[in-house]
Amino acid sequence: MGNRKALRDIKNMVVAPLYQCAVTKRRLTEKNNVVDKNPKFVARRPITRSFAATLTSKSQATQQESKENYEQIGNKRKHSPTVALVVSSNSLDTSTAIEVDEHLPTNELPLPMAEEMEVIESSDAKEVEMEDIVMETIPDIDICDREDPLAVVDYVEDLYSFYRKTEVTSCVSPDYMSNQFDINEKMRAVLIDWLIEVHHKFELMDETLFLTVNIIDRFLARQTVGRKKLQLVGVTAMLLACKYEEVSVPVVEDLILLSKRTYTRAEVLEMEKLIINTLQFNLSVRTPYVFMRRFLKAAQSDKKLELLSFFIVELSLVEYKMLKFRPSLLAAAAIYTAQCTLKGFKQWTKTCELHTNYSEDQLLECSMLMVDFHLKAGTGKLTGVYRKYSTFKFGCAAKSEPALFLLEAGHMLDPK
Q1: Is 343 exposed, middle or buried (0-12, 13-18, 19+ CB in 10 A)?
Q2: Most Cβ neighbours (<10 Å): which of 9, 89, 143, 236?
């Protein structure tokens, strides 16, 4: 029995565990059957899928050799007392009982060979290296604002997570015009296009424009309005948005002059009461602008990309059909479309996908509509946005060539 050698492979490594486990050697005493655990080898890192595949191929190659060895010593083991050695795997939650000879020297129990150890170290090193490379490709977009208290870097991710959860409250039904008896979506488009020009003339903040459009849609979704009062709704909505966003608010008389004295001061104030009560004083809503700033930061934008993105998203404000998209999706699609327009090819990084929570495929439908709006922006009667962004102040963003290849890509995905 002293010349007997341990088997090289007793199939305890045929199915390699996916996670870290230890091969434990146990010494058994015949008197009291006390198990003395003496760890001989502990894997230093998790066994990867690639190593599992390597071990599987090795074990298959040695199965024939193992079978022959078992047959040779089969007769010797018949008269020898045996005990069970249980090799457990935490990762698979299973255990394998293997019969071994009581008199078998413990130092001859099957252990990983030196070449297998090299495979573990090399394969695991490659896996760690690849993981590190992937993590390095996603930069920290807030690192430059760590010292700025207004950037609230410690809370910004929580804030935008809350914005995404609550943005649905600022949305309206995409077919609310069906409840209106005297106005339609074309009249809404004319009103929004005119308000964009008024907003530009007064040099108001971007937030004011987006809030104005949101107030109009939410009010019209709940209240029927005649066509003669539609402009009054728009003017009053801008007055409310200015009171919420601006430091210097235009006076009522200025808005009356813009409407060519169609309405009186009393009518404006009466409409203001009606709108604010209908909306239950809720002006803290998530508009596309809220997400534009964050997503542009994730895209590491320059001034050119920023202006083109706002040009595209303002074109979408005019279009009634775009109400079916959430504000965050509109913002992400506008930036994606602008990037594709400037680069001339599809451009959507992992950083943008991480911070927007939208993949390129999710943006494609909305982006195709935006490309179509860009293509037709300078034609037709509603050219307020096009003329605004054709000026030097806005970088002549409207004169950029549309990303027509996105339309072709969309038709390839959906032949209909």
Answers
A1: exposed
A2: 236
